[in-house]
Every structure is written in C-alpha cells, then in structure tokens.
User: Which sequence fits this backbone?
C-alpha cells in the first residue's frame, strides 16, 4: 500500500498528528513553552529578591496584604508564600488555564473548524478529553519550570530552609490550580458554545474574583469565604512549610473532575453552532 504524503506538512507534524492529544500538544507547543518560561522567570526574579528583604521592610507590609500571604516575610517560606506563590504566580496559572481552556473547544467552534474535526472518527468526549490532556501537560510544564527555577537559586538566594519536598509540593498545587481553571474554561466553552473571548473573560473573571475574596476575606472577618475559593486549597495548607496537603489537593482535583464531567456531558448533548 502506498502512503500519500500531504504537501506542506512536516514530518513532526505528521508524527504528532496520530492522535488528538499529540496534535494539540504540537500545535500549542510554542504557547505552552512561552507560558512556562514566563512563569518560571517571574518566580525566579521575585524569589531572588529575598536576600534584600530587611526586618524593617517585613514589618512595614500593610496589614491588608496579610491575606495574600504577606504575614511572615522574615522567613524564606513566608516570603515565598507571599511574594512568589501568593501574588503573581497563581494569577498567571489562572490566566493560563482560562486562556488555554478557551482555545480547546471554543476557538474551533467559533472558527467553524469543529465540525470538520468531528467529521473524523473521533467522538466529542474523546476530543474534549484529549484536548484537556494537552492542557494538563502545559500546566505540568509550567509547574516544572517554576520548580526548576526555585531549585536553581535555592542556595544562592538563601532559600535553603525550604526543603526540596516543600518546593515540589507547592509546584504540585500550582499545577492543580491551573488545571482547575483550565477545566472551568473548557467546560464553559463546551457547554455553551460561547466565543473564545467570552469564555476566557468569564473564567478569568471568576478567577480574579476568587483571588480577591481569598485575600480580603480576613480583613472583613469572613474567613469562612476562603473555603469557597480554590486559592485556599492551593496555598492555605502552606505546602512550602508542611509539604503536600493531600486533602486540599484532592479538593482541587475533585473540582476539576466535576467541571470536566459537567462540560463533557453538556457538550455531547447540545447542537453545535447554536
């Protein structure tokens, strides 16, 4: 039998095109790499400032920032929990999940490419799960980049008091946070057929709102509200100090699975293009 080679299609593209998972990985390889590098470099930059933190600077942090982890800047774990893993890094993970999740189904449906994909022998469920598996790979890559950055400067920046296990535990919860918002955006797009911009805006907006609630709830005496946000389960157990909080990790994983299941259920039952 003679195999027809498609003109203009590279060897790697053909190799990765054997499944929807590998094809999505290949098509988004640059996007995943940029997200990972940007997040890793940001974490490295902020972590490297730790030796410059003085006792006066730590004491002068506004009380309103304590809810974001800025209540123990004197220790390496306390500084990292606030300045690195409590501030911009989780927001980047949230935006990665929202932006990438919006691409998984909504982008193809908006462009009219989804019907062409589903004309091939692939079910809607398999398409969505393969796409989400690729998103998960990107989340793991981001977490690995952040972990690598932390371990690279651990000694030079005076972060030795945080164990390798503590850094690893924080990287795991970071990946789970990105996965949750990725599942949220994927589910919204799959369930509603909304545009990519609408899906991203909705998921990112929910993320920013949850982030603000988790940070400011203690200031208004409503600590219980933090239990309703994924950021509490991401960092509330202080993984840098205590290792991986299994109960919190399970909550994030269960919420991700529930969102993905709900989105898949709706996606398999609605009329596309409506």
Assistant:
């Amino acid at each position: 039998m003679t195999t027809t080679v498609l003109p203009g299609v590279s060897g790697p593209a053909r190799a990765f095109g054997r499944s929807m998972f590998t094809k999505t990985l290949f098509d988004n390889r640059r996007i995943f790499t940029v997200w990972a590098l940007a997040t890793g470099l940001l974490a490295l930059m902020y972590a490297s400032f730790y030796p410059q933190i003085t006792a006066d600077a730590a004491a002068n942090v506004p009380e309103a920032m304590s809810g974001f982890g800025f209540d123990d800047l004197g220790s390496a774990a306390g500084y990292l929990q606030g300045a690195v893993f409590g501030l911009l890094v989780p927001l980047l993970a949230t935006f990665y999940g929202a932006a990438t999740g919006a691409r998984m189904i909504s982008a193809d449906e908006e462009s009219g490419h989804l019907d062409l994909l589903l004309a091939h022998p692939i079910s809607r469920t398999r398409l969505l799960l393969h796409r989400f598996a690729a998103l998960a790979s990107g989340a793991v890559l981001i977490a690995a980049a952040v972990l690598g950055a932390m371990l690279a400067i651990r000694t030079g920046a005076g972060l030795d008091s945080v164990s390798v296990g503590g850094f690893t535990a924080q990287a795991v919860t970071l990946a789970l946070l990105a996965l949750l918002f990725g599942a949220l955006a994927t589910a919204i797009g799959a369930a509603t057929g909304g545009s990519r911009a609408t899906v991203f805006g909705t998921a990112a907006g929910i993320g920013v709102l949850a982030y603000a609630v988790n940070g400011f709830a203690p200031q208004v005496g409503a600590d219980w509200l933090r239990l309703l946000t994924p950021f509490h389960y991401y960092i509330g157990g202080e993984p840098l100090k205590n290792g991986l909080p299994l109960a919190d990790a399970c909550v994030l994983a269960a919420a991700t699975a529930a969102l993905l299941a709900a989105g898949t259920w709706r996606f398999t039952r609605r009329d596309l293009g409506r």
Observations:
- Residues 1-10 have pLDDT under 50 and may be disordered.
